[in-house]
Q: What sequence folds into this?
């Protein structure tokens, strides 16, 4: 444990939350994928998020579940308080760099280039800096200043919704905005005609339906958690991944993890069970510690064929929201991002273009139904 990286996480929450809503199809920001990505890079000793939390009241519970300390910076005291959260975040980071020498890595969760001088100063103090930000809202200056930069939309567990298809409903929804911006004077001159016709107000509400992938509420199985953790470790380390490192990382993600809960006496016995099912590959390492790796992941065409097999086995059709879990029961290390796709819906559309499956939108199910192509 003495050789572990010790991480301090600082979150410019307004930058990340608004960046996700504006540039990732209106999706809600979730700290979970960031926590999983950092778990394979070291031991997180502190997490702090800075914002005026009166604007993000619903997000507090999510952050609290991930043990994030919420730093309140009220923004309602005039323009002079505009950058108060940023200044507080910088002061705390510099103070921690001097007072807590055991912290080796600072994780700056923001896309704001104003933090570039802070990043340069931390590196000058011999600290490693990892940046995290939404790709389209991140300044080009910030990633170049960091030792490593993670784009939130490319992290495992972030399903970026595709842009909605061209329909008539979104065009109707856009009309009221342009009318209110272009003609404020006309609206003031004739106030009565605006409220009189109530019919147009009710019309767009039931027709606007944006088909997005519904997130699955079913928690991932232990095989999937092990495979995902192993894939992240293999991507972030240069050498082989050992069984001891894998278990330590699993405990960072879930401190309650124990192989005994799954009927195994030792962690090595648990890994051998997964290897017998071809979920893992084991090899003898130095000092008697097993080296763990994943089987070779096939090409996109092979994965499309696997999707077709899974849909065939399921029967007539499979809801898109449940297809990913079915795939991971066959291959726990499946990840559409490892194949170059931003989200699972985009991957399935590529499978449809390859002739493996067919996607059909079902209004009653509020989901895509996947059938064999």
A:
């Amino acid at each position: 444990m003495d050789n572990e990286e010790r991480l301090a996480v600082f979150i410019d929450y307004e930058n990340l939350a608004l960046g996700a809503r504006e540039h990732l199809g209106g999706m809600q920001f979730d700290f979970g994928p960031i926590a999983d990505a950092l778990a394979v890079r070291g031991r997180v000793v502190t997490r702090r998020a800075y914002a005026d939390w009166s604007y993000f009241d619903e997000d507090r519970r999510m952050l609290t579940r991930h043990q994030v300390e919420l730093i309140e910076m009220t923004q309602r005291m005039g323009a002079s308080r505009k950058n108060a959260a940023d200044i507080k975040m910088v002061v705390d980071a510099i103070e921690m760099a001097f007072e807590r020498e055991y912290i080796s890595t600072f994780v700056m969760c923001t896309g704001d280039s104003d933090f570039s001088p802070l990043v340069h100063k931390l590196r000058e103090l011999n600290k490693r800096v990892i940046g995290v930000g939404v790709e389209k809202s991140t300044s080009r200056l910030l990633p170049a200043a960091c030792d490593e930069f993670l784009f939130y939309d490319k992290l495992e567990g972030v399903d970026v919704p595709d842009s909605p298809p061209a329909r008539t409903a979104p065009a109707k929804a856009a009309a009221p905005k342009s009318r209110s911006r272009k003609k404020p004077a006309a609206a003031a001159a004739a106030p009565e005609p605006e409220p009189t016709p109530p019919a147009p107000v009710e019309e767009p509400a039931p027709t606007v339906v944006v088909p997005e992938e519904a997130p699955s509420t079913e928690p991932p199985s232990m095989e999937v958690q092990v495979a995902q953790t192993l894939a992240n470790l293999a991507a972030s380390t240069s050498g082989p991944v050992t069984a001891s490192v894998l278990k330590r990382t699993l405990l960072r993600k879930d401190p309650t993890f124990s192989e005994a809960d799954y009927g195994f006496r030792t962690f090595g016995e648990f890994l051998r069970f997964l290897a017998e099912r071809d979920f893992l590959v084991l090899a003898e390492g130095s000092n008697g510690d097993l080296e763990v790796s994943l089987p070779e992941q096939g090409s996109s065409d092979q994965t499309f064929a696997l999707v077709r097999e899974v849909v065939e086995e399921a029967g007539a059709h499979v809801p898109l929201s449940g297809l990913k879990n079915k795939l991971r029961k066959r291959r726990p290390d499946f990840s559409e991002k490892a194949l170059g796709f931003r989200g699972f819906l985009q991957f399935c559309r590529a499978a449809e273009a390859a002739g493996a499956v067919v996607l059909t939108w079902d209004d009653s199910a509020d989901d895509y139904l996947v059938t064999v192509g």
